[in-house]
Amino acid sequence: MAATTSAYDPGPPPGPVPAAPRAALLVLADGRFPAGGHAHSGGVEEAVAARRVVDGATLEAFCRGRLHTAGLVAAALAAAAALGTDPVALDRAADARTPSPALRATARRLGRQLLRTARATWPHPELDALASAFPRGAHQPVVLGAVVRAAGLDGADAAHCAAYESVSGPASAAVRLLGLDPCDATRVLAAVAPAVDRTGAEAVRAALRVPESGTGALPAASAPLLEIGAEAHAGWPVRLFAS
Amino acid sequence: MTAPGTAEAGRGAPSGVRATARVTAAPDGRGGTALPVLTGEGPLALRRVRADGGWARALLVGAMGGPLGGDRLTVRAHARPGARLGLGSAAATLALPGQSGEAARYDVRLTADAGAELRWLPEQLIVGAGSDLAVATRADVAPGARLVLREEQVLGRTGDAAPGRLTSGLRLRVGEQVLLEQELTCGPGAPGGWDGPAVLGGHRALGQLLVVRPEFTATPPVARLLGDHAALTPLAGPAVLVQALGRDALEVRRVLDGALAELDAPDTGP
């Protein structure tokens, strides 16, 4: 009956629940999220073999280049998908922005793996519909946008997640490929982080134009060495990473 | 004639040249191709040249040089049903800075109707130091039409300390379907990493060859490398893209010529 008293003061009652969920984004962007991304180097394996990436400085230049090209395109596709754009139209737009068949196949494989994991994680009728519409897999950013919706996140979350993935994959692969100090790889990610934020914001602005202007409003920034290198890498008999 | 000339650029009026070159090709009824429209303007002069095998061929002949900053140049080529049109340029195009500090625009619009064949094979575009150029090439190809499109860019002239700034866009639509949409931005002020190991890797010459053929639907060419910095890739439709990087324009041209010769083997060009 006696009220228990404690020295611990919980403080005033909690304020309003934050409007934007955050933890789901951390789950999705976590490198340990089991969607197969760890098996891909984002082109860094080929760039290391060709000695274009040899240290932290060249890794950073690689990451910046990938972020502003493939990363921006992926972020805008993901944001547009998260905002509810027709995934079939987005998947075609992704094809048109990916001339390398090796990269198109990689994007679909990653999309399929992400969708499988996400349907088990955040079951949602839109994810089921996406799986039926694309039995061979949709481009990963298109799936990512749909997953973001299913997880209750928004277009900016999708864009930032895709933009971040475009550099985090190469950075962690470089640790294995170059024997780079993980601190150096993480320093690269921190150095690139402001550009990731700007890219995410630019991607969202582009995605917001899609309802009015169509998928032609999406960025189409290209990286010739990523495209050419992906075709070279796909022909290797032995490799550490799938792409 | 309302298009202001370069002389007005210094007066702060809408600066730069506005010029359009137009060519339309149509079958002449005798197995050849006529050019019912062939008009140039300002720095874009057009001249018909000899061609065989049912082709009509025209060249852009640089009459003034440029584009300079603030210029807006447009080339429109249209091959009507059944026409065979080859279009090239007599010399490389050199982009230079203008007085206004504005960017220059160079738009190319190519249209090939059903059963037509269009070849756009201009010489290189050289992006001189201090210039700022936006190139946009749009090709609309009807199902069943054929297209060969080449574009080559050289970043900086020999001896230029830095190239100019270039934004180069390429879009291919076959029927209702956009098969290729890409944009490359490089030079001073371009997003970080443009010259790094993911994008150009220090190369100063780049080229693209786009080939559309209806038979690629049934038998798409297989993706393959063409040397160390070039690849031929089938797009998600009846078209292939060759992307090539090189130290200089000659290296890129050799790769693109080799790829075209291989694709052309069962075909006849203009």
Topology readout:
The complex is a heterodimer of chains A (243) and B (270).
Chain A: H1 23-29, H2 44-49, H3 56-82, H4 87-96, H5 101-121, H6 125-133, H7 140-150, H8 155-178, H9 182-213, H10 224-234
Helix pairs in contact in A: 3-4, 3-7, 3-8, 3-9, 5-6, 5-7, 7-8, 8-9
Chain B: E1 18-27, E2 33-39, E3 44-49, E4 56-62, E5 72-79, E6 84-89, E7 93-95, E8 104-112, E9 117-121, E10 125-127, E11 132-141, E12 146-155, E13 165-174, E14 177-186, E15 205-212, E16 224-225, E17 230-234, E18 239-246, H1 249-264
Parallel strand pairs in B: 1-5, 4-6, 5-8, 6-9, 7-10, 8-11, 9-12, 10-12, 11-13
Antiparallel strand pairs in B: 1-2, 3-4, 12-15, 13-14, 15-18, 16-17, 17-18
Can you give a write-up of this model?
The complex is a heterodimer of chains A (243) and B (270). Chain A is an all-alpha fold. Helix content of chain A is 65%, strand content 0%. The longest helix of chain A is centred in the last third of the chain and has 32 residues. Chain A is globular and about 55 Å long. The relative contact order of chain A is 0.21. Chain B starts with 17 loop residues before the first strand and ends in a 6-residue tail after the last helix. Chain B is mostly beta strands and 270 residues long. At the A-B interface, helix 3, helix 4, helix 5 and helix 10 of A face strand 14, strand 16, strand 17 and strand 18 of B.
